[in-house]
Amino acid sequence: MADRQNPDRAFDTAMTGRAAVWKSIEAFAHAWTRPLTPADGIPSPEVRKAEERLGLRLPAALSEACGWGVPLEQVAHDDPPVSLFSDRLPDGSRTPYLDRVSSACTEPVLSETVMARRYGPYGRECPATAAVIRAAEAICTPVALPPCPAWYHPAGDPVRWYSAPGKLLCREPDADESVPHGSVLVVVGRSEADVREVVAAVPGDWSAAEPVPRAEEEPFPGW
Prior knowledge:
Blueprint: H1 7-11, H2 18-32, H3 44-54, H4 60-65, E1 82-85, E2 94-98, H5 101-117, E3 123-127, H6 130-139, E4 141-142, E5 160-164, E6 167-173, E7 183-189, H7 192-201
Antiparallel strand pairs: 1-2, 3-7, 4-5, 5-6, 6-7
Helix pairs in contact: 2-5
């Protein structure tokens, strides 16, 4: 059923090109949030105005997605690589992020889904020890997205994604930058039962479940 869609199934063909990415994002949004509409995004006239101000044409994928930073020497490509600019890098420099704009658009879709659900009954997390990762990989499938740096800790371990029906898992660097190679595993689910299944199958030092007031049991209508 669509509401139990495995996120990996939504993105398993996404890396073949930007058109496949847009379709994958639409499928994921339909299953996990709400269907996208023509009102979502930035109107084409606004994109053209931005191009006029910049004095150049945006790459096709960037124009279609309206986001991310592309090195000027790559701007003529339809779907160029993306760099991450961060004040958390030496001298506010940049670092390679993902190999295509369309790929870069996939990551925030997943990240925002996790952020919306990780605090409360639909999410849990634990230190990403080697044993935890082995157990998670035994029950989940890697999402077809290359590892990439986290914006808040670009020098830390790269972000990696896994999924199973009704479940989305993220291995991300610990926000405590004093832990140079520390990672946490975050799981969110379509339901509390989805989260409990992962916690039961992956032995780890899981955070306690965080209840929410009854009036907020469905904080994200349609999810």
